[in-house]
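User: What would this chain look like folded?
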Amino acid sequence: MSWKIALVVALLTALVTAFVTAFVADKVTGLHGVSDFEGKRGYAVVFLFIPAGFLGGFMLGLLGTKLVGATDWAQFWKAAGLSVLLGQVALFGIAGLSLLSIPRPLKHQGGLLALEVEVRVPLERITERSREPDQIRMSLYAGPKDNGYAIIDRSKFREEEGFMFVLARADLNTRSSARVLSFHIEEDTWLAFDLPLPETPEPGDWSDPSPMRDARTAGNATVWSDVQLRYRVVLAEAGQPAQ
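Assistant: Here's the prediction, encoded as structure tokens.
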């Protein structure tokens, strides 16, 4: 193998791979939901993925030249072609594996599924500040890669018989046997509810109201609260359980 040929092939492969990496990384990071806030996604593409593509392409250029056994310039294009091909296979292979890890929304008869929740909070827990936006929050945990805020519909808040009823909705994105709802009021109240749903639930009726636990407790040390919750699985498009 000629090192002069190898270095030229490696540099060419590195440039081509880095160029293609810019577009692939931009697309894949977007699908992964990487934030554009303050240019975070752009910085990741420019300062992380493009240099990684350049370095990977350079190494594969050396490998391609060695596999071809290029000793004279007549074999340059053969070595370059193989090296560029290796770079693209590696790049799109890594991108494909990365996309497989993106949570896929659960479906029922072709429709997306969501979880509707109604929380019954004693009015003694509701302060003037907690009535302000974002002071009552809820999230659904279904795994390390599926943990997000639920959408709380403040227009549907209602007060009856000494309670405030809070309605929320969260998408069911992945199969999971360990879904946990978290409920926050300001900074002091943090409650949790372990959902007894199967990995692939189906739409249904409202559950019976059940108490939420102090999120800092579990097992035999569980401390139950006076806040109750009921839930149902619905078709996300219609917002109603299937018949």
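Residues 239-243 have pLDDT under 50 and may be disordered. If you want, I can go into more detail on any region.
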